[in-house]
Design the sequence.
């Protein structure tokens, strides 16, 4: 990843992208400021900017892009297409039609499971994980473990939005995954 430190973003560097992301207060519950990227997706120029800027942050030697369900599929597919790479789908339990491998992970209240096709990547391939937003990082950390379980080398994780106050990006870095994002919003 580029920058003086992992995830480094010069102040104001992507204000044009941040301006395309709508904030919805009190969703899904009171006190939450939901960062809605659907407004960004409605803007073809905005989606093109995000794709090009994420592509500029991709480390050399990436074999595959891995997108986390569901909005990670959108940004991951755009980035994979832009870079001429394949796309690994990381989905919720029971959604993929072929033979899968999966991993369970903890949520605030209970557990969840993500899966990928068992033949989605070859051991030793280098993968970049992509999603729209990093908050607490639970799903992204599970995706990293799943990719590593398949034998992939996770070279980094890229997000359009980081909510740094929730610590997800730092948790990924602590697990040895370089993280970058285009915009950051305070709070949750």
Sequence:
């Amino acid at each position: 990843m580029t920058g003086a430190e992992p995830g480094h973003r010069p102040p104001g560097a992507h204000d044009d992208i941040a301006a395309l992301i709508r904030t919805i207060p009190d969703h899904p519950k009171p006190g939450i400021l939901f960062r809605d990227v659907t407004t960004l997706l409605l803007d073809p120029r905005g989606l093109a900017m995000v794709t090009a800027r994420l592509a500029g942050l991709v480390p050399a030697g990436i074999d595959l892009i891995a997108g986390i369900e569901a909005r990670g599929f959108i940004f991951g597919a755009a980035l994979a297409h832009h870079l001429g790479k394949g796309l690994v789908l990381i989905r919720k339990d029971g959604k993929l039609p072929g033979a899968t491998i999966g991993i369970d992970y903890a949520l605030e209240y209970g557990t969840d499971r993500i899966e990928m096709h068992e033949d989605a990547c070859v051991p030793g391939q280098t993968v970049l994980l992509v999603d729209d937003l990093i908050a607490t990082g639970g799903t992204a950390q599970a995706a990293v473990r799943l990719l590593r379980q398949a034998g992939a080398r996770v070279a980094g994780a890229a997000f359009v939005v980081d909510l740094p106050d929730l610590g997800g990006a730092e948790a990924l870095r602590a697990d040895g995954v370089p993280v970058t994002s285009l915009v950051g919003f305070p709070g949750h």
DSSP finds six helices and nine strands in the chain. The radius of gyration is 16 Å. Residues 1-7 have pLDDT under 50 and may be disordered. The beta strands are 22-25, 33-36, 64-68, 86-92, 100-107, 110-117, 126-134, 153-162, 179-184.
